[in-house]
Amino acid sequence: MDDARPIISEGALAIDQGRIVAVGFARDILGKFTSNVEYSGIDNVVLPGLVNGHTHAAMTLLRGYSDDVPLMDWLNEHINPIEAAVVNEEFVRVGTQLACWEMIGGGTTTFVDMYFFHDVAATVANELGIRALISASVVDQPRNDAVDIDDQWTQANQFIQKWSAKGQHSTVKPILGGHAIYTLKQAHLSHLRDLAIEYELPVHIHLAESQFETNYSQTTYGNTPINFLESIDFFEPHVIAAHVIWSTAQEIDILAQRKVGVVHNPTSNTKIASGIAPIAKYLDAGVTVGLGTDGAATNNDLDMWEEMRLSAYLQKVTMKDPTVLPAKVVLEMATSRGAEAIGLGNEIGKLREGMRADVIQVGLKNAHQLPMYDVESHLVYATHASDVKRAFVEGECLYNEGDYLTFDPESVRRQVAQVSDTIRNYQKNLR
User: Would you say 281 and 84 are in contact if contact means Cβ atoms under 8 Å apart?
Assistant: First the structure.
């Protein structure tokens, strides 16, 4: 996925101390390096691990809890009440484990998260070895992990200091998060901006996701969401903006000029009928666009291969042009462009010497992949999460042909059953 875009047949990859040290033909790599561990690449393609630029990992425990409901009704009448009733540290620990299980097995090696009890989520991701940007998020309402927003600011500062101190000894990077412009006052958004500048960290936020948000912004600020944030210099630090469906041509220029990382969530956006983001226009304007799944409570899975396909299909049918968003660009959105969108473009997303060794192997022998004439086309239009054979983060193998090497799936399964029983009991009491 580097700029030259070579596809190397009979190739090899050499990794040392978590970094890629060589990429090339197998005969050259094997002649130059010796190794303690080798993994076969026969009938596989190796590529950068997928980057899930926006999700709410612990909400995987709410998969299927409330479907076929408009966004704001889903949030206010269904999700907020169940979260208030059942979300605690154990919920987040088990939910994040479940999400990581699904993501690792499907080839996602990096995810960006926003939820409660962010220290718990960070601990789980670090223990399992997956790379994660965990948001110390704020919202102007009481939460299960904070009495008010002042408490949330205190937690955010402590979280950032704690996980920043771990540095290279952790796969977790702390970042800042604000839920949305309709759940944060202008003063809060400005403070979030200032903290991000002070800590030199990205800000993760839902932006221009729904018609409701646009109407709210017009009523409250006399402006559209993107223009409003531009007016308060919110884009001064790097911003990871999830969804960004409702934008004008003038606002697209702002996104490009401010180097906002847009994370497209096509499955969630279409399922809740929020709209179809103008991704082709973003790319034409030079906006950096990655892909995300959003949470499994709206998706209902964390499958980045589905996001690739749907993002391509939606743009083609919307623009009435089959050449729009070709497979090679979509693959970049899931890897190199996705890494750039979340601020890690110099670290991951490409198979290049010096990059962190976050890589996956995908099998190419299943019926739905035969015959193969174009590997990039197959990866985007034919491959499934179940085709992933191995996943590595910093050169450490997390998943090897069905075996998870950093946790016990059966233990997670039992814990999920216990938490889901609590949720079912809550539902019964509602009746």
Answer: no
Rounded Cα gap, residues 172 and 154, in angstroms: 20
How far apart, in whole angstroms, are the C-alpha atoms of residue 29 and residue 186?
A: 55
Q: Could you tell me which of 86, 62, 88 has the C-alpha nearest to residue 75?
A: 62
Tens of pLDDT, residues 219-268: 999 999 999 999 999 999 999 999 999 999 999 999 999 999 999 999 99
Q: Which residues have C-beta within 8 Å of that of residue 172, sequence separation ≥ 6? A: 122, 125, 126, 131, 132, 133, 134, 163, 166
Distance CA 218, CA 409 (A): 47
CA gap 37, 357 in Å, rounded = 14
* Residue 187 and residue 232 in contact, taking contact as beta carbons nearer than 8 Å: no
Q: Please give the angle made by the CA atoms of 126, 131 and 132, to the nearest 5 degrees.
A: 85
Residue type at position 344: L
Residue type, 301: D
**What is the pLDDT, as a whole number, of residue 431?**
65
CB-CB contact of 242 with 263 (8 Å): yes
Nearest-angstrom CA–CA distance, 75 and 80: 6
Q: Give the CA angle between residues 62, 68, 72 to the nearest 5°.
A: 80
The strand order across the sheet containing 172-178 reads 50-55, 108-114, 131-138, 172-178, 203-207, 239-243, 261-264, 288-291
CA-wise closest residue to 2 among 246, 353, 247:
353
Q: Give the position of tokens 């000894």.
A: 169
Left (φ > 0), alpha (ψ -120 to 50) or beta: where does 294 sit?
A: left
Residue labelled with tokens 């088990």: 94
Q: What is the model's pTM? A: 0.97
**Residue 11 backbone phi and psi in degrees, to 5:** -100, 180
Angle between helices 118-128 and 149-166 (to 10 degrees): 20
